[in-house]
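[stage:ingest] chain + small molecule (NAP)
[stage:ingest] validated
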Amino acid sequence: MYNAKAYSAASATSPLASTTIARRDPTDQDVQIEILFCGICHSDLHQVRNEWKEIMPTVYPCVPGHEIIGRVTKVGAGVKKFKPGDLAAVGCMVDSDRTCPECKEGLEQFCPNLTLTYNFPDKHTGGVTYGGYSDSIVVDERFVLRVPSNLNLAGAAPLLCAGITTYSPMRHWGVTKGKKVGVVGLGGLGHMGVKFAHALGAHTVVFTTTPSKKEDALRLGADEVVVSRNADEMAKHAGSFDFILDAVSADHDINAYINLLRRDGNITLVGAPEKPLQVAAFSLLFGRKSLSGSPIGGIPETQEMLDFCGQHNITADVEVIPMQEVNEAYERLLKSDVKYRFSIDMASLKAD
Ligand code: NAP
Ligand code: ZN
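[stage:predict] done
[stage:export] tokens:
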């Protein structure tokens, strides 16, 4: 074991603060990565504040972070894909059982024995896993991704969660040219959803509660922008969408969006609000519409998404911050005041 610098929360109400954590020395299959940038996902905030206590109670101290980009510093003897000096990335998962039908299909996100990057039992240390708000991490090479060399690293970090979480359902539900696609909530996930829907050729409509984001939405690739609190603007789109991606982090009226789907249209939830959403049966019945959810994406699809981003030069729009500003960043995230993802420059940890 060795010591790594990190930021952790001691309880649901404590701010994140500087700490030292123990990481394992790389085993034969492991890649040790010096973390250069880590995105701040709204899931980090939900988890740190124990807002998902019913499903995934938080174990403290909690070191969040699952949008990790860095440089390989050491590899185990059995590692084939990486060598010291390579760029490398890690997302929301660091292990799975590799034997279940889901793993065999490359859909590790559905493995019953999945290990998430933080707040999950750590097979190696016996404690819980610690995420990317840290200067280094050690991960089995099967869960380490290659980073296209043309991408800006601070902007590429959020691809590891916000990117794959929006890319995967769009691919699954056939977002392509000729489809009308909605993205609800222009935050970290939402702005990636807009970039992907646009790059995949769909007619893309953004729904936002923040009128001042209109210009940005168009710049990011939206064909139209609807301020969702305006009932008249919403009514104009009734019954017209093939697919809607709902990336809202808080309670909201999902029926308003189900009503915008055409026959057999689908709305996929990627947002994970703390409280259950109310769904009106009739809004689904008429038109045989479907409501589904989608968690991140498997390792092969995550690599496919990164390569797609390399080809199309897609990264997140980021505000780069030092680690020491993480608590202010969380407060701003709650006010939907981020354009459009915070990316922590881990070099700042050296100052602690
Ligand atoms: P974020 O950057 O905070 O964006 C959320 C957006 O939702 C805000 O920018 C805002 O957009 C909208 N919003 C916020 N409060 C709202 C309210 N009360 N009513 C209506 N709209 C509201 O968060 P994120 O990092 O993109 O994450 C979004 C959600 O996805 C979180 O719940 C997160 O935990 C979840 N998530 C899920 C997965 C998965 O695998 N499925 C992966 C990552 C994250 P406007 O200002 O445009 O309205
Ligand atoms: Zn995330």
